[in-house]
Amino acid sequence: MLPQANDPCWCGSGRKYKRCHKRSEGRVLPGVVSPVRSVPDTIARPSYADTGHVESWDESRVKTPEVIERMRHAGRVAAEILRLAGEFVRPGVTTDEIDEYTHQLYIERGSYPSTLNYHGYPKSLCTSVNEVICHGIPDSRPLQDGDIVNLDVTAYIGGVHGDTNATFVVGDVDEVSRELIRVTEECMWHGIEAVKPGRPINEIGRAIEQHAKAHRYGVVRAFIGHGIGEQFHLDIPVLHYFDPRNTMVMRPGMTFTIEPMITLGTWQHKMWDDDWTAVTADGRRTAQFEHTVLVTDDGVEVLTGGPGAVSPIAPWHR
Ligand code: MF3
Ligand code: CO
Ligand code: CO
User: Fold this and answer.
1) Residue 317: what pLDDT?
2) Of the residues 52, 75, 121, 151, which has the fewest C-beta atoms closer than 10 A?
3) Which atom of ligand 1 lies at the shortest distance from residue 115's CA?
4) What would the mean pLDDT of 175-191 be, rounded to a whole number?
């Protein structure tokens, strides 16, 4: 039998059980990260690919029709890779095997995996399991029956990025987690429906927060959506909660992501020692969905949607 919280730990450390092994019970533990995978020279790379150093330059938040056309293509590529990566998810597969498979999918399509060496990030997608909020690094941990996992795919092709993610179930998943996933995807769609030219951007966060609150879920504040285009992250602050000061006006031609992270418990986070992996402070589960969108003359176009994508409202959690 397991000791009580205040008993000495079974491992002989002399520490209380609650301060020792109890802390990791049921939690995701870091595994081993494999060596960096290479991308053939024939594939065009963003400027940080060789150095890990991200330079930024002036880029209009409003895109020209020519840039938008390239972003439609990058969005479709990212969406297809995400769908295929999601179909690869099953109990026993390691997140590193998902990275290896996904890495190949990017290359076959002539795209560069935008996360690879972005500020030194070592892998071709983010894999965030259970209580991991975002930016989980693929490693040797096999997915377990009952886990949930977010796959976040970003493809660089034609000089622009397309960014999209979804949360998938692994085998048989409990109803509480499935409901969290379903409502999180709904939150993203409510945010997308709030996109209209002339409106302040905080209408997006208002819609998302309202739906999350109705289900008594938390909304993560530390990570937000962003402008996107020739650069991976541009200064359009897309908060997923309502902030009256978040008043940038949405203009036709703007492109940005909407990517709410919704929690069963607290919205506050902690970082792993790798300085990438963000987890919920209470260890409870969290889900996320993401699309790259374009503000049109009368509403919104989802650049990472379409027939090749996993959404709208994915069937795998029914
Ligand atoms: N794709 C993530 C986003 O939605 C960013 C990942 S950056 C990385 O913005 F460096 F963590 F990979
Ligand atoms: Co993003
Ligand atoms: Co992303």
Assistant:
1) 45
2) 52
3) 12
4) 96
